[in-house]
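Please review this one:
***
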Amino acid sequence: MPNLQNGGRGTVTVNAARNEVLHLIYNGKDKILNSGLAKGNAVQAQRTTAKVTAVAGFYGEPYYYESGDDSAKVTINVKDGSETDNILQALYNDQFDDSNNLVSTFDLKIEQKDKHKVTTLTDCLIANEPNQDMNDADHSMAWSLLAGKMTTISQKPNDNDFPWSDSTSANGGGALPDSTPSSNKSGN
């Protein structure tokens, strides 16, 4: 099994422009992967299937179906030979035993601090290791992962972002707000 010593739980900026932090949770330990991520799109995560699909009924009325599939495809772009590349290689080598039985999975957490979002990817496996390229120039490599479940939590928008929502109604929605300025509502 890979030796994952926690390098500290402080804030680490993976990409200064986006202020993102990537956590690897393995065997109950949290390791911040801050070394060797490629510039640009270091991590990409996308649901395997759409969460909701629509089907038109006989008269054209819409029916919406929620998929039970919360799985995701993940790509982590790293610099060849970096600490993160070596950790992913160790996880890939150790995820199955000699009889090809699954031994362990891991979780990832992506914190987007400037966007107030946290994406959690659970029960991850490395689907494929990157192509090995003998190249004297620094280059990035793409690790392909599969996640059993993808969940994104974001900060609730303030009322100014959603002026049409009415928190007093039973279904959380409501009519559009009165557009009359507050100074004119008293009839003065």
The chain has one domain: 20-154.
